[in-house]
Design brief:
There is one protein chain. With 183 residues, the protein is mostly helical. The protein has a domain of 105 residues: Arc Repressor Mutant, subunit A. Helix content is 48%, strand content 10%. A three-stranded antiparallel β-sheet has the order 1-3-2. Strand 2 and strand 3 form a beta hairpin. The longest helix has 23 residues.
Length: 183
């Protein structure tokens, strides 16, 4: 069975690799191994190869280190974008598995944040909340389109002095029966 892009990206080890390459902007296998000591080196190389083969990661540089070629990886232009075509043959069980992986990565990241010795959630801008909105499809598009545009623009910023990486996770779940109150 050929794996689709969502399956490829949402593997727990590959997600860790992708997130660390995104954070660093460029990374070698050695650097990733230092950042992910829980991942055996052979496993790391196997997953890097799969991500590069699928063109999720690209080799942007390489150089000799003690007789071995060290590759420098970066996220490709298309990177982790999953298209409608990628989602065409995904089952409900696949979606639940992907969502579970996504939520697990949020729990991991939040746990890592909480492990810091001195945290100030208000100053750090940490927050989590859920709100329900009653919107027509057109009203929903009016709300989400500018938000997506602003996020896309902000994602173009790289690391720099005075900037801190912040993760915004967005989950949109429409009402199961598609009926609104008053109908």
């Amino acid at each position: 069975m050929k794996k689709n892009k969502a399956d490829l990206i949402l593997h727990p080890v590959r997600m860790k690799i992708i997130l660390n390459v995104m954070r660093q902007q460029r990374a070698t296998a050695s650097q990733l191994h230092e950042l992910l000591p829980e991942v055996p080196q052979a496993t790391l190389y196997r997953h890097l190869h799969k991500l590069a083969e699928a063109e999720v990661l690209i080799v942007v540089d390489q150089y000799q280190v003690r007789g071995v070629v060290e590759k420098v990886y970066a996220l490709s232009q298309e990177g982790v974008n999953i298209t409608e075509a990628d989602l065409e043959n995904i089952t409900k069980d696949d979606h639940m598995r992907f969502f579970t992986t996504f939520v697990s990565s949020l729990i991991h990241d939040f746990s890592q944040y909480l492990e810091q010795p001195d945290i100030d959630m208000a100053q750090d801008g940490v927050g989590y909340r859920q709100c329900s909105l009653y919107l027509s499809d057109d009203e929903f598009e009016e709300v989400i389109a500018p938000f997506q545009e602003a996020l896309q623009k902000a994602m173009e910023h790289g690391p720099a002095p005075g900037r801190r990486r912040r993760t915004i996770s967005l989950v949109i779940i429409p009402e199961a029966d598609n009926k609104s109150e008053g109908e």
